[in-house]
Amino acid sequence: MHKHFPILVAFLILPTMCFGQDMNPRGDYSEHLYRVTLLRAAPGGLATLVDESRSYKQSMDGNVVIMRHSQGDHWDLMFLEPFDNNILNRRDWRVSFQDDLIASSDWNWQRIKEAAASAGLFHIEMFQAAAGLENALLREREMENEYLEATGRNGNAIFVTRFGSDVDNFTIGFYPDMVTYATDPDLPDEVYHKAATDAGFASRSDIGFFLRQFIVGHNDTLASQVR
Question: Does this model's pTM top 0.70?
């Protein structure tokens, strides 16, 4: 029986250690609560739903960010708003699909609003973690932010789902436009490599492979802003 003990120990520490790294998240994602709503319009009803969402945004004095999916997922609109918004103001949307969840983040609402004010494009990634690897996945998202910031780009807002979805965490990147999103800064390869290794990746090309060991599901979406 004792001969299996090292295997058991390795299994127990896997969620927090990977290739010798401490994979516990560094940030505190419990402070700021948000309500997230995903809507898919009824057939033929998308234009009406977009108009209604604009009216809702106006009724909330702009205290909501509304993102319109362009590719990569099955919903049409995502609403992101503080959890303490008066949910009694929420209309009964005439939709074929609605998903509501509660999430938390280390970004406060003011920071989100400031990032969204100049955003014409959002990059939204939703993740389902492999069993027991929720914290390791969260740490990987932090590592990607460290890499982005070290290469002259803005990090993503990280959200942890607290209730209402099988998505364990999701990130939102804020970009002025598609060109900014798709264009890497003009930096030497050595700078990118150092940024990746400093963040904890084996190399720049390893980032995607490193992420995949922590997830069983991943939705990747681009969205524009409903103003």
Answer: yes
